Amino acid sequence: MWLLGLSWALSMLATMVGSGSAVPPPGTASIFADLSAAELAAVRSFLLSRPELGLSPSHGGPLAKNSLFLVELLPPKKRLALRYLDQGGPRPQRQARAVVFFGGQAEPNVTEFAVGPLPRPSWYRPLSFKGGRSVPFTARPMTMREYEELHRVLAAAMAPLNRLLRDATGFWYHNGSCQHPRAGEGDGLGQRCLTFSDVAPRGLASGERRSWLILQRFVEGFFLHPVGLEVLVDHRDPDPRRWGVRQLWYNGRYFSSPQQLAESYERGTLEVARLPLPPSRQLFSSYEPRGRFTTGTSTKVHGARVCEPQGRRYRLRGNLLEYGGWSLAFRLRSSAGLQLFDLRFNGERVAYEVSVQEAVAFYGGHSPAAMQTKYMDAGWGMGSVTYELAPGIDCPSTATFVDAHHLYDADGPVRFARAVCIFELPTGVPLRRHFDSNFQGGFNFYAGLEGQALVLRTTSTVYNYDYIWDFLLYPNGVAEAKVHATGFIHATFYMPQGQRYGSRVHSHLLGNLHTHLVHYKVDLDVAGTGNSFETMDIRFENISNPWSPGARVVAQPGEPGQDWELGAHPTQHSHMGFCPVPPDRYHLAVTRHHENEHSSSSIYAQNEPWEPLVNFESFLRDNETIEDQDLVAWVTVGFLHVPHAEDIPNTATPGNAVGFFLRPFNFFDEDPSVASRGPVIVRPLDPPAFTRLQIQRWTPASPGPCSAPAPFTYNGTYRQD
């Protein structure tokens, strides 16, 4: 049986004993591989060639059109995959999932299609959600084309406010495009443009599409430069000519129109929030070094680095990753990010799937945008914003880097260089060790095994926030899923009333309090698909001492029970379950596997949270038995973030990481890391003198020098090939 350790929690998934199969060859792992650039292009070309769909290019043209929004792998059904992997059955047909926006018809909607067979598609069929519901057009994710229209509407609406904005901030909203300012050029402030960040959900009820926009000065780290103006734009209609500004909030007051705000300024009845011009260098929102450490120790030289003195100890063949006893297939899906399949240890399947499902952040605030913000990042293309990883910073220079191709709101496959990295990481702590003292100033033996883990990593930069997604594999059969939160905080204009909902982190900046919740799917198949769920309840009992009559012994036995123990770090909290269910309703949800419950969220949840297409609560309503069944554990980890001045310029990763472990629990006869040839054993040969030692090791006596890596390089582009 494996133990599912949820940070500090104890929970067990019991299983029937069965036999596993051998490590699959790379060819079988490829059934889970992401679509290649050629496959993505083939799907797009095929769908655009179908006259009945009437598809137009995504970019350019009107919003009221039919366009292809997303193409990604449609994974095979589990029963077909297992028949192929375990029983020598036929290879599942390779198919794509395609999301089409039908905006150019009387009743606009969003429809998903299965397209196959790949690599040469010849058919498509609609896909349905549980319950057969259709996707309303207002639930669709935002596109670059819609943002272009939002910019146009906002530019026209801001024209009456240019004088106010110039006088108060030194910046204004330009009608054309603005180049990002570069430090050292001119005054470093560029064209003194204003930009905006939009928040969601986009309204207060199903069917709405009204977005609050936070205006900010377009400087480096513009997320930290709100100017005190927030604008509500109604953009529900497919025709942008019918869009309009419905309300404004400026420095604590609401206005019904830009003209009303401008008139208040002209009459002198407006309390103006005047902001000094930002400096051209060492801007507080930039990464430029400033200040000094008092010890005087140097930071002008490189720090410690990961080294592979005898080469890599893992193997990557296509999307098949192998390390020690571990093997798995992985993909980076555009909709939600990393997904592991067929996770095995020494040939025994541990899990059929472990994947990221959703990341949400619920905010509080005084301004309308702040109080409205409840981000659900799958709706922002969380899996498609996997920008280039920097060697030596985002991943060790020794890492293996893998490119990704996404077709998400684009007119062809877009290549994201170095989107994934794989590396072996020294943990800095022994996997296990013991010093066996003789209690007379010497020892009987010392033994230790160095700690290492293989890391599979990607990042998602969802506008201001950067999530670092890790899956770690340890030699003792333990796997860990972990996410670090970094990047810029979501901040609003400081007002004294706002301090109920956050902290003043700079002169005109409020860091809004928020809770991060990250949802995972863990489809455990431990020695087969017939698994059961148990909890272990730990309690004290007071019993008679059998060897000392009249004495009592306080013991702590463990026995199965209905309660699930959860211990939280004082500054971090773990939650299980997912919106729209209140996030703390379920510490851990375990359901039976169903093909129509493959995800706990969707790309539509952000803009339709009131009547979500995927309602996680419905997974639990059937009250099915979970004894000796194919089970899925749904796990959410998270933490409360109270922003503080040290979050400037960016939230740091220490203290802002959460995750969970999968640990073997009486599954092996002993710690499987005994198969490692990395331990060192030291025994004295002449006690009590201890002048001669026997040192046993199964690796070279010296690891050898670490060669210097090549100079740092970075490209940072992602574009169609």
Automatic annotation (TrEMBL):
Provide the GO MF annotations for this entry: copper ion binding; diamine oxidase activity; primary methylamine oxidase activity; quinone binding
Residue ranges of domain Copper amine oxidase N3-terminal in the record: 187-253
Q: Which Gene Ontology cellular-component terms appear in the entry?
A: plasma membrane
Cited Gene3D superfamilies: 3.10.450.40, Copper amine oxidase, catalytic domain (2.70.98.20)
* Domain of life of the organism encoding this protein: Eukaryota
The annotated region (Disordered) lies at: 702-721
User: Domain Copper amine oxidase catalytic: where?
Assistant: 305-542, 585-673
What span is annotated as the signal peptide, if there is one? 1-22
Q: How is it modified after translation?
A: Topaquinone (TPQ) is generated by copper-dependent autoxidation of a specific tyrosyl residue.
Name listed for the protein in its UniProt record:
Amine oxidase
Organism of derivation: Ramphastos sulfuratus
Its taxonomic placement starts with: Eukaryota, Metazoa, Chordata, Craniata, Vertebrata
